[in-house]
UniProtKB/TrEMBL annotation:
NCBIfam families cross-referenced by the UniProt entry: maiA
Lineage, broadest ranks: Eukaryota, Fungi, Fungi incertae sedis, Mucoromycota, Mortierellomycotina
Keywords of the record: Isomerase
Entry's Gene Ontology BP terms: glutathione metabolic process; L-phenylalanine catabolic process
CDD domains assigned to the protein according to its UniProt record, in alphabetical order: GST_C_Zeta, GST_N_Zeta
Family, per entry: Belongs to the GST superfamily. Zeta family.
GO cellular component: mitochondrion
Organism the protein comes from: Linnemannia elongata AG-77
Domain GST C-terminal: 96-216
GO molecular function list: glutathione transferase activity; maleylacetoacetate isomerase activity
PANTHER family linked: MALEYLACETOACETATE ISOMERASE (PTHR42673)
Coiled-coil intervals: none
Record InterPro entries: Glutathione-S-Trfase_C-like, Glutathione-S-Trfase_C_sf, Glutathione_S-Trfase, Glutathione_S-Trfase_N, GST_C, GST_Zeta, GST_Zeta_C, GST_Zeta_N
Protein's recorded name: Maleylacetoacetate isomerase
Length: 219
């Protein structure tokens, strides 16, 4: 695990291609927060080091340290809500309770239903021979349900015409879909929203290819 000097900036323990870390990077960019990245190489098993397990007992990324309070937060959606509630700038959740619940449902459709069965530890357990087929199947199945949800909620973005937390969940998952060969043309709303978001500077800067731990051949 890389070592870094301590700063007053918030610290994000991240892996360049982790969709959960990616969500938080977008949020920090939208809030215009200067932060320090501490890469955790999941392929080398750094997430299971004794040092990191003291920070994140599950050995997952991301972990977020708010150096103003000294508190460490884990679980990407909780981190997103904390950042949104404590930092000024673009609001990631609507004010209306029903609209907030709707956005949260879109977020959890990705974070709780689609992403977990296709993350690295599950794919390792499935095995090299079957992992691509497994990921493609469950991603496509999840996108079908998400597309149906977006038929009722989408405007320019996943929920109406303002960027919300739902968009932060959507973009990394589409990347995974493309990576594992899902035919994204079957999901026109998801594809349209993703294309619009991917052109925004805050989203571009959060992309895996722009991260300090991205291998040169993937940049």
């Amino acid at each position: 695990m890389a070592t870094h000097t301590t700063t007053d900036k918030p610290v994000l323990y991240s892996y360049f291609r982790s969709s959960c870390s990616w969500r938080v990077r977008i949020a920090l960019n939208l809030k215009k927060i200067d932060y320090e990245v501490r890469p955790i190489n999941l392929l080398k098993g750094e997430q299971k080091s004794e040092e990191y397990l003291k920070i994140q007992p599950f050995g997952f990324v991301p972990a977020y340290i708010d150096n103003k309070t000294g508190q460490t937060l884990i679980q990407s959606v909780s981190i997103l809500e904390y950042i949104d509630e404590t930092q000024p700038g673009h609001a990631l959740l609507p004010k209306d309770p029903l609209e907030r619940a709707t956005v949260r449902a879109l977020v959890q459709a990705v974070a709780a239903d689609i992403q977990p069965v296709t993350n690295l530890r599950i794919l390792k357990y499935v095995g090299e021979e079957k992992k691509a087929e497994w990921a493609k199947h469950f991603l496509a199945e999840g996108f079908k349900a998400l597309e149906a949800m977006l038929q009722k909620t989408a405007g320019v973005y996943a929920f109406g015409d303002s960027i919300t937390m739902a968009d932060l969940a959507l973009v990394p998952q589409v990347y995974n879909g493309v990576r594992f060969g899902v035919d994204m043309s079957a999901f026109p709303i998801i594809s349209r929203v993703n294309a619009t978001l991917s052109d925004l500077p805050e989203f571009k800067a959060a992309h895996p290819s722009q991260q300090i731990d991205c291998p040169a051949d993937l940049r």
